[in-house]
Design a protein that fits this description.
The chain is α/β, with parallel strands linked by helices and 447 residues long. The protein is built from 12 helices and 24 strands. Strand 4 and strand 5 form a beta hairpin. The chain starts with 9 loop residues before the first strand and ends with a strand. The structure holds shikimate-3-phosphate.
Length: 447
């Protein structure tokens, strides 16, 4: 693909083993939620370890537009003076969420039960992603939305002047949708119950409890759970210590597995069981990853990961694991390409509506670097090479940070270098990625 003036291509090539300590940034999901719940609490919420990446900074800006005082006091340290549930001001201009599906959808929920309107937009990737999955159930609370054809941004959401409580089953396996509805429920009278068959990440539920909301979680017969929130809530400010992001840790982790002779320590990573399916999958594939010093930090389990280069074997990833590793399939696909034997991944239709169509992007990228892969409607079948991947290609990243990082990791272990067409989007979730990898010994150079 021709490089445009504004694209930032990068070349990754094999060098010596990776070694050292990889301090990955704060968890993206928890960072968004800390800013949002801080806005809904009256008084000062203090955050440490906030992810200072474009996606989260856009959410911070949106919280200011709704009237909160959001102040950075030092690296990762942020103080928020919230406006209280029911106290949101109407934003005076368009809210631009950049690349972030999470930020935009959670904020739609946040304002859907307040008598204000807001206009939502984002970058070219976000403007292609489906918003009806949130807008439709938000109508049950009394909100109204006008979106582009197909439920796309830019869109206008008019919050309910007289919100109603809701009982709704979320069919799509999305924590974003569940969380948006839970946030909307906070300003509706009475109890709202949001159920879901998939066990998606539960950071909203945990953090709501920490901010003093009345919330309960019941298992559903046949799997899944129902979350009940009492509305017209009064949230108390809290101290939120954001653990390091396992979805970012996944990149140095897989790099250390693939580059012969490597040993890397990744400290204080979030180990919430709904987030670490990748760790289980890699272990099934023969990865040498030791978890030590398990402890609690801010209501979440964290631990230190020691990763040593390992010969991997293919694995059939159970489809039910998908919610616990939904953002990790791109990097898992790279690991699978270097494994011996076949890896099968199914139940992944959601990957088609992420920052890019990740099934198509991974299949194309893997083929380009010399890996045999079959693209299924809901997954990938990857024929592992036993460690011998050619490389020698430029991979298209389609405005997707995780596709960019995945193929840069691949290029550290291929026979010939791998170029990715654009690295600009890495700043949406992991601005220090290139530096951090170079400090471990990775050879990444501007292309
Ligand atoms: C997120 C949920 C996931 C994930 C995203 C972050 C969240 O999306 O892909 O990166 O913070 O709730 P879905 O819930 O839409 O699958």
């Amino acid at each position: 693909m021709a490089h445009t003036a504004s694209s930032h291509p990068m070349i990754a090539r094999a060098a010596g083993p990776l070694s050292g300590t990889a301090r990955v940034p704060g968890d993206k999901s928890i960072s968004h939620r800390a800013l949002i719940l801080g806005t809904l609490a009256v008084g000062e919420t203090r955050i440490s370890g906030l992810l200072e990446a474009e996606d989260v900074l856009n959410t911070a800006e949106a919280m200011r537009a709704f009237g909160a005082s959001v102040v950075r006091v030092g690296p990762g340290g942020w103080h928020i003076h919230g406006v209280g549930v029911g106290g949101l001001a109407e934003p005076e201009s368009v809210l631009d969420f950049g690349n972030s599906g999470t930020g935009s959808r959670l904020v739609m929920g946040l304002m859907a039960t307040s008598p204000i309107s807001a206009v939502f937009t984002g970058d070219a990737s976000l403007r292609r992603r489906p918003m009806s999955r949130v807008l439709e159930p938000l109508r049950l609370f009394g909100a109204e939305a006008v979106a582009r054809e197909g439920g796309l941004m830019p869109l206008t959401l008019k919050g309910a002047g007289d919100a109603m409580p809701v009982r709704h089953h979320v069919k799509v396996a999305s924590a974003q949708v569940k969380s948006a509805l839970l946030l909307a429920a906070l300003n509706a009278p009475g109890k709202s119950t949001i159920s879901q068959s998939a066990l998606t990440r539960d950071h909203t539920e945990k953090m709501l409890a920490a901010f003093g909301a009345e919330i309960s979680v019941e298992p559903l017969e046949g799997g899944g759970e129902a979350v009940t929130v009492t509305g017209e809530a009064e949230l108390k400010p809290a101290q939120v210590d954001v653990p390091r992001d396992p979805s970012s840790a996944a990149f140095p982790l897989v790099a250390a597995l693939l580059v012969p002779g490597s040993e890397v320590l990744i400290p204080a990573v979030l180990l919430n069981p709904r987030r670490i399916g990748l760790l289980y999958a890699l272990r099934e594939m023969g990865a040498n990853v030791e978890v030590t010093n398990r402890r609690l930090s801010g209501g979440e389990e964290v631990g230190d990961l020691t990763v040593r280069a390992s010969a991997l074997k293919g694995f059939e990833v159970p489809a039910e694991w998908a919610p616990s590793m939904i953002d990790e399939y791109p990097i898992l696909s790279v690991a699978a390409a270097f494994a011996s034997g076949r890896t099968v991944m199914r139940g992944l239709e959601e990957l088609r509506v992420k920052e890019s169509d990740r099934l198509a992007a991974m299949a194309a990228g893997l083929k380009a670097i010399g890996v045999r892969v079959e693209e299924l409607p809901d997954g990938l079948i990857i024929e592992g090479t036993g460690g011998e991947v050619r490389g020698c290609a430029t991979v298209e990243t389609h405005m997707d940070h995780r596709i960019a990082m995945s193929f840069l990791v691949a290029g550290l272990a291929t026979r010939e270098p791998v170029t990715v067409d654009d690295t600009a989007m890495i700043a949406t979730s992991f601005p220090e990625f290139v530096h951090l990898m170079q400090n471990l010994g990775a050879e990444l150079v501007e292309g």
